[in-house]
Amino acid sequence: MRIASLVPSLTELLVALGLRDRLVARTGFCIHPADALHDVPKVGGTKDVNLAKLQRLAPTHVVVNVDENRAETVEAMRAWPQPPSIVVTHPQAPQDNLALIAQMVEHFGTGPGAHPGVAERADALTHALQTELALTQPASRPARKVLYLIWRDPWMTVARDTYLAAMLARVHWLTLPDVHGGATGARRYPVVQGDEPWLADVEEVLLSSEPYRFGAEHLAAARALCPNASARLVDGELLSWYGARAVAGLRYLREIAEAPSR
Fold it and tell me: What is the DSSP letter of 64?
């Protein structure tokens, strides 16, 4: 197997499953774990893959995600004279990581050419994830209306049917606006104009560290956007990366949910 991963979360997951020696390509955003990936060739970004370079690296499998990668990228790879097996993922909630891990085992841990140890590592990761999911439940937690900001100029947030919103819902944090964006597309990440009536209902603004790197200098503007809300900075990688990172992410989510608002 020669695996190319075009998704940062999945690259990290593949390494956690013991598949580092099968990785032949990654994106420039696939940065974790850094010590394991420094010599894995980069093939552009998640949205602008260098297809010519990727084809030269001759992967037998390419791991992609519905949200992260473009459909035309997948179609272009399928048109190659010797197309790789495309492994399409689309986790939409923290509990979907259980199926995601099983999907990786199905492709890389069973059958001819299976990598030794993948199934055992997957079992350990699954157990850890099940433990954190059981500990992170909305029951007994008061509902809180939050605005999760991922970008500015313009302000952008997340729809209720994204992985991020489902993650926050595990501690009964309900994202505003109360809209669904559908399976794919820009509607999953709505633009906030600043004059929406529901902004007055926001109780807390969460400013993510990615994809836009919000800092302390943005807190005042966030509070002005939502006049009745407190605001804080949060670790976007821990909250939005699925796969192996979800174990620490759920733990982090409980920590910030129990911390006092500012």
Answer: E
